[in-house]
Amino acid sequence: MGQGRQRSGVPLPEQWGDLPGTASRQARGASGAAAPRGAASPRTIGVVAPFLSGAFWGPVLIGIHEAAQHRGHRTLVLRGTPSEVQAPSLGREQVDGWIVIIEFDGLSELARAGVPFITLGARPADIDCPAVLPDNHGGVRSAVLHLIEHGHRRIAFVGNFAAYDVRERRDAYKDTLAEAGIPFDPALVIPCDNNMYSGGRAVAPELLARLPGCTAAVFGTDKNALGMMSALKAAGVRLPEDFAIIGFDDVAEAQSADPPLTTVRQRFEMMGSAACELILTMIAGERFPAGGVRTANALIQRSSCGCNVIQNFLDATASPAPEEDAEDAVARQMVELLILPRPLPPDTPPTDVWPAVTRVVDMYFSVLRGGAPAPAAELERAYRQAVDITPDLGALLATARLLGQLPERRGAPLDAAARRRVEDFLELARLAIARARLAAETQYVHQLGVLARTNYEVSFTLLGGTQQEYRSLSWLETTTVVWGCLALWEDPAARAGLVVAGAYSCDGSPVPPDGSRCRLEAFPPAEMLPPSATDGTYSVFLLPIRSAQRDWGILALVGPTIVAMTGDEGTVAIWGTLLGAALERDALVESLSAQHVDLQKAYASERALSETVRELGCPLIPLLPGVLLVPLIGMIDGGRAQQVLEKVAEGVSRHEALCVLLDLTGVPFVDAQVAHSLGMTSRAAAMLGARVYLVGVRPDIARSLVDVDLGALATFSSLSAALRELAPARGRSLKARRGAR
């Protein structure tokens, strides 16, 4: 799950600048003070991203959309690279400026179009344009210096150097070592194949080979670090006692790792917001920094580097004096425990972050002074709010530890009764924390179940339903998508125009009719988009639909964030894959049906041809009255021999023939099997009153028949010889037959 403000499943820690619960109030205050910039002339910001969800992509898109929405503008998000989505052609008539995230294939075409554009997350090597980047140098510098403060000198760097960001982080690592007077050792720079867990695991043997001389490492990404941590622990390396690790990104899993991962927190949503500000400035024709902007980050200290942040905070917490300020001071300290390592700004009330914190503190002091026991249900409700701020069980339990240490830190020892009341309250608080955390986990599991059922229903419709069912987009009813349109390329090779194959609307907004055509530059049809898209409330997402064999078209969706629409990350990509597979399946079925028709026609034609060939393979020619000529050409196998027998018997009966001449002149070879078949033909003809003669017996055929019993078969060397012999005799036989009548 990506980190963000969405409350889907187990709540996730904030990873950008705003404190939990304060951003929306600040935004409302700002919008109340002045009209959003550009409200009189709304613009559409086009975003090109290869992915739409994930620890990086999701928050960046949220930041772009929220910043645009706050200023009265719209966002059109295209999944893919500039080349894959044909930017700037696709949506040209709607988009005023482009933000291209990390993947730049086809960016030169966008640059030549003359439309304002910037990049985010990386800077293209061959195109000069503004870019929004994290402060990679400052982040890695703080990580390396922190490890040096812990006493480490042999520090490695691990990362995928194909990534622009990681190369910048590697260079910052080298610069910081030089700043600290530590010689750079190239052997401690370990490249890996990707930015994911597998990349870190794969190079674990290389890092293990450098132990124990190397005692710490900075990683290009958290996922590389987490993959490495599992491999090191499997090899018996103790973290952080034997080896210290710092990552970069602060993904959700960093906090729950064992040990929790110290990392450089990127403010992904802030990057998106900064990109929105920059492109709007360019669209408005205002001055902008030519090189772009860098967004700040922060070192988040956890346990993998050797720190114990919570204990250090508790040890450093001053006694909350004077007495009249004690409750507010304790509330502030409890909130700071939940948002470590960030302090709570002096002008921010703790209730802005945790509304129920003062009630928890009130209940504690009431019990301390001899009041009634705290209501368990109210305490649990309060800690459910705390779980919304951080899922870190250690930080949550530390709030109870803080309360338990108050009497000692204030130098006011408790009598036995008061100590018992406080212990009972703390036990109740720990139980409330456990129940609140369990409730969050239960809700998360429930949402996973709903997600699994929804995905099953959608998958069943896309893969098992009819063409009408999946093209109508009715399967979107189980999601929070408010409008959708599936358009297929009119000519997949040219990819210039689209034909609407299906559309969906849950709010009564108009949809384009099936079969209607739309130019690439005007898709999706602006006049058909729902109000929630035209006013910027929701983003418009364009998903290219492809299969292994073909580029099919585009699915347009209008709705909240991708995670809110689909229930998790990656599901929208699965939709696209399944939809492409369904289109591919139907195309294959149609192709197979057409081929089946063609095969049936070919089979019928072949059967007719076969019958013709059959007739030609054993023709019956009435040569003379009472004489049939059967010229045979080609090889004679068992099937053809049977055909000869049948045709001769039929011909003798039909023509009342007395002589049948089997002409073997065109037969290349006669063996015993063929001779046997010819003998059977002779006997069948004899039973009908006719005699069979072999004509055209060549010397080679004669030699092959020396040892074959031909029975009553007579032979002639040629047809002319047979006619000379048979013509007079045939005349006498016919006269005798007439006289007998």
UniProtKB/TrEMBL annotation:
The keyword RNA-binding does not apply. GO terms for molecular function: DNA-binding transcription factor activity; transcription cis-regulatory region binding. Residues 23-39 have a biased composition (Low complexity). Pfam families: Peripla_BP_3, STAS. It comes from the Bacteria. Residues 1-39 are annotated as: Disordered. Coiled coil: none annotated. CDD domains: PBP1_LacI_sugar_binding-like (cd06267), STAS_RsbR_RsbS_like (cd07041). This is LacI family transcriptional regulator. It comes from Sorangium cellulosum (Polyangium cellulosum). The lineage of its organism: Bacteria, Pseudomonadati, Myxococcota, Polyangia, Polyangiales. The gene is lacI.
